[in-house]
What does this fold into?
Amino acid sequence: MRRLFANGWVVTMDDAGTECPDGWVLVEDGAIAAVGDGEEPPAAAGLERIDLGGAVVTPGLVNTHHHLCQTLTRARAQQADLFTWLRELYPLWASLDAEAEYAAARTGLAELALSGCSTVFDHHYVFPRGRDGIVEAEVQAARELGVRIVASRGSMDLGVSDGGLPPDTLVEELDAILADTQRLHSTLHEPGPGARVQIAVAPCSPFSVTGRLMEESAELARRLALPLHTHLAETVEEEAYCRELYGCSPVEYLDRLGWLDGDVWCAHCVHLSPAEVARFAATGTGVAHCPSSNLRLGAGIAPVRDLLDAGGRVGLGVDGSASNERSDLFMEVKQALLVARGRGGPAVMTAREALRLGTRGGAAVLGRADIGALESGKQADLAVWAVDGLELGGAEDLVAGLVFAGPHRVERLVVGGEDVVRGGALVRADEAEIARAHRVQARRLTP
Ligand SMILES: [Zn+2]
It folds into this structure.
């Protein structure tokens, strides 16, 4: 199938930051065949020309941290810090099963797709005993909606009776965790490029996972060539917990376990010393920056400008829907811009740099060279943004205008050359039906 997306302002996110104000993108068999400015490829039999009417075209956004299951438990623990919030929510999550996860994933993935997001990493770590098929359920939801998913087989094995935060009923045995991770790798993981489903290894956090599971997870991930992920340095309480239990900061703890490397990315990284920022950059360890969640829980603001200046990899995440009730990645683009400026002043980040974090940055964090930019040979993952609405009136610079005026419902989302959103609506699913089914499951989970 050949498609020509023509008459758009194409923001390529290539190394040079090339933009084509009179641009077009030629797609063949799910990949980008060519990108240009001005004169289009000639009409030909079998070539579908789609006139974008001057809309802005960006790479599909890439979400680097989420917990889709949390769409079922929004707006709880409204004034709580992270540890208090977790203690209130763990008992609710203990009822999760595949049916509820499927409904949760459809909701979160639909929200993300409608915000222009074509690739979603989900950090799932809640596996109540005897409930099978949870990761399979979210993968099924992603396949049906048409977005790419990197699904983690996360884990917790440090219960409250051993000094951890989660209840003992919600932690698993180390051997069972690793065996299930191997099973999901062999049944679901596509090595790529162009992969629509990948598996990541993702023990939850320093306060819910033993050091031994952290080490063995890293060993397994590296043996299977899977990406490796965890939460890190999110709050001052976590810092105090690590100092008390391990005698060092969370980053030093992870370093000691042999984690920091180019195949790893960590969520949050709010509390990093200058030396730890340098260590992240030197080792190539990536960061999933989740500004709305960090603000919602009052955790602080990550030193993103410092990480970028040091040469670090940084992408954006919406984080779970119980600590950021809105799964809108374009909102995180804007939020990243605003919090960077709140921390360091108006000159520290441009609108285009924020957009780069949400596209190219996210792809780099997930270790995906095949997405995140509109260049020949990359996957045809495109987000088309209408520019004729009220909020962009008077904006000459439409790209910066989009970021400053965000968030927006995406006009069209293309993943692997195929429409996932068209005319601001899901192509393969009914939004109202997803919302109805989700409410039934949310009530079942939290009576
Ligand atoms: Zn998280």
About this structure: The chain has a mean pLDDT of 97. The pocket of zinc ion is lined by residues 65, 67, 123, 231, 267, 319-320 (CB under 6 Å). The radius of gyration is 21 Å.
